Amino acid sequence: MKLDFTNKRIVVIGAGQSGQALVRFLVERGATVALSDLRNRENIVGLDSLDELPVRFDLGGHNLELFEQADLIAVSPGVPLDCKPLRLAASCGIPILGEIEIAAREIEVPIIGVTGTNGKSTTTSLIGEIMQSWGRKVFVGGNLGTPLVKACSAAYDGVVVELSSFQLETIDQFHPAIGLLLNLSSDHLDRYPDLLSYYQAKLELFRNMTAEDFVVLNADDVEVCRLTTDLKATKVWFSARGRLVEGMVRLGDKLVWNWAGANIQLPLSELQLSGEHNIENAMAAMIPALLQGCPAELAWSAVCSFTGLEHRMQLVRKLKGVAWYNDSKGTNVGSVLKSLAGLSSGVTLIAGGKDKGGDYTLLRPLLKQKVRHLILIGEAAQKMATELSGSCEIRLATGLESAVQQAYEVTDSGGTVLLSPACSSFDMFPDFQARGSEFERLVQQLPAGEAEL
Predict the structure, then answer these.
(1) Are 296 and 331 found together in one domain?
(2) FRET pair for 116, CA 20 to 30 Å: which of 150, 168, 337, 449?
(3) Domain for residue 452, yes or no?
(4) Is the pTM of this model over 0.90?
(5) Which long-range contacts (CB under 8 A, 24 or more apart) does 298-303 make?
(6) CA nearest 32: which of 60, 58, 56, 50?
(7) Which residues are designated catalytic?
(8) What count of other Cβ atoms lies within 10 Å of the Cβ of residue 419?
(9) Do both 16 and 86 map to the same domain?
(10) 128-142 pLDDT tens trace
């Protein structure tokens, strides 16, 4: 059900990209809007673009009277729901809705929602590529980068949205036609009291789905299987380990789509994306299009033409026989494990940043097997060094520039340097993109010596 914002007093809390998009959306619909953020103006990127709008800025703290007097609080992703102004608003009975919920009420075309701990951005992008190759005009965004409210300003055939646990905390009536849960592993324990609370936030994606909807699930993930037994929607499974009779399954060197009488085989040799995790992403991404009638050969062609996202196992440079990879988007332990699994031994791993409460000891087996040098940066460096002691040679660096220089000095020809932090970037950078871009800049500045390979 659409909301009427005319003359409503609305406080948008959180002035990041989604918050700023919310402000524009609400002002265009006749609301009286205040934008509130703990940060000062000079620390908020892009805020000047709102200066021409009739917006009240509440910066450098939260004016609690605004929250007490509001008709609605619109929450940006990342703002904790237990913060004082939101607790106050809740105690006053004021509705609190997230950007995803507000946008989805305006959207009348089918929504495909993608969540999970890892692989969300790649899978979301792949679905978008398939749909566009099929001739559909689709919006692709959400946690991937473009706020969902921007989908409300144009006509689309469909919407594909990446959804973080933070975004799913504030839904109410949000109802995707197809929902994907790619995997579940430890993340964001700096925000959630325990792992189950984090998993339950992910499962909010399915809250309003019915038997007419589809859920796409990973049959190889124990937690996904355990926590989705009671879902009402029709389940479609995928397995990279050959476990399925019906759904999308990997059998040797091919993928097999076995559903509703179809039995279609697709050769994995054509896939450009590397790594076992990307086989899973490709399988999951194919299913929504196939369920909607897209020809399998067309969908597979779109997947095979995709070469990957920025900051996700992106080859930056080959220098003196060493391959340098930017995996700045690897912000949790599970993501780093998947990235390391696709590499040979002789790796120099640069990791660290702002601790998210993950269990770094899970890295120990692969560090022993594949990593020769571990270079740690940021606030989490000492904690990681303690938990990973004895698994490989460990060095501490004062920052990313020092880490790159050390990696250049210690990595032998034939080896790999991988930036895959297992942490968020917020101790040193505004986001993982800025961290990855700085890594690439530093790597490109390294001297090539006699010849660059």
Answers:
(1) no
(2) 150
(3) no
(4) no
(5) 298/130, 298/133, 298/134, 299/130, 299/133, 299/134, 300/266, 300/270, 301/133, 302/126, 302/129, 302/130, 302/132, 302/133, 302/134, 303/126, 303/129, 303/130, 303/271, 303/273
(6) 56
(7) 120, 143, 188
(8) 31
(9) yes
(10) 999 999 999 999 999
